[in-house]
Amino acid sequence: MLRLEEVERPEPAEGEVLIRVRAASVNPVDWKFRRGIVPKQLPAVLGNDVSGIVELSHASDYSEGDEVFGIAPSGAYAEFATAPAALIANKPAGVTHEQAAAIPVGGLTAWQALFDRGGLTRGQAALIAGAAGGVGHFAVQFAKHADARVIGTGSARNRDFVFGLAPSSSRTSPSWSPTATCAWRSHRRSRSPTCPRRMSSASPGTSAAS
Ligand SMILES: NC(=O)c1ccc[n+]([C@@H]2O[C@H](COP(=O)([O-])OP(=O)(O)OC[C@H]3O[C@@H](n4cnc5c(N)ncnc54)[C@H](OP(=O)(O)O)[C@@H]3O)[C@@H](O)[C@H]2O)c1
Fold first, then answer.
1. Higher local confidence (pLDDT), 142 or 188
2. Nearest CA to ligand 1 atom 47
3. Which of 74, 89, 119, 209 has the lowest CB atom count within 10 Å?
4. Secondary structure (H, E, C), 68-128
5. Are the beta carbons of 69 and 89 closer than 8 angstroms?
6. Residue with CA nearest ligand 1 atom 11
């Protein structure tokens, strides 16, 4: 059960900061904690992703008043949260707290999948299932940034959104070739009529490219 309660303010340890929380976000793992699918010692403050202002710093890289975002192990669904310096970064001025709080876990997941686990390097192809999703839309941008050829799957309604994640000049590069473009097809509807014949054998829910 999730309850609103008054609790002690968390104290930052050496190397940590205390953050006055301005925004937090919800990730799949949060409902998995609530349903007991992922174990967590209770009682606990939920929420990993945080963006806010440093209230107190025991970390050399951060000072009071810094705007930061990242992962808060003490729990982000609270007025105050603590985080080690290694799990936060300075929030860019042009990014709102709400936007920044949507980045950490989804972005980290995409990064780990592509580079830490996948070992993606320049010139390779990355097939990103659910390219419009919370993780997928980061993966598309990271893979493009790494100069990979990106192939994404998703609903037709999200096609323009996903293409908008890459600079338009890149769409004509080999990584956004017509074949790769046609790999962007609905997994719930029939294939795009603009896709070449060889694409048509792909079954719903799959992506294909030559
Ligand atoms: N978000 C995180 O921080 C995080 C962290 C670790 C692991 N994960 C895991 O990563 C996966 C994706 O998470 P997410 O946050 O990115 O979820 P999400 O935002 O809900 O995105 C899910 C994506 O999957 C696609 N999809 C949905 N039903 C589908 C189907 N039947 N066949 C093919 N594609 C389908 C959707 O495509 P359309 O919308 O285009 O239809 C959507 O882009 C989940 O398994 C989640 O548990 C997420």
1. 142
2. 28
3. 119
4. EEEECCCCCCCCEEEEEHHHEEECCCCCCHHHHHCCHHHHHHHHHHHHHHCCCCCCCEEEE
5. yes
6. 135
What tens digit of pLDDT does each residue of 20-44 get? 999 999 999 999 998 999 999 989 9
- Distance in angstroms (rounded) separating the CA atoms of residues 52 and 95: 12
To the question of pTM greater than 0.85 for the whole model, the response is no
Tell me: the pLDDT tens digits for 51-65? Answer: 999 999 999 999 999
Give, using CA atoms, the residue closest to atom 12 of ligand 1: 135
Residue type, 39: P
- Choose one of 35, 71, 109 to mutate for the ligand 1 pocket test, by most ligand atoms within 8 angstroms of C-beta: 109
Comparing 41-50, 53-62, 74-83, 197-206, the range with the smallest average pLDDT is 197-206
What structural domains does the chain harbor? 16-101 (3.90.180.10), 106-199 (3.40.50.720)
Contact 99 CB / ligand 1 (< 6 Å):
no
Task: Compute the distance between CA of residue 59 and CA of residue 189 in angstroms, rounded to an integer.
Answer: 52
47 lines ligand 1 (CB under 6 A): no
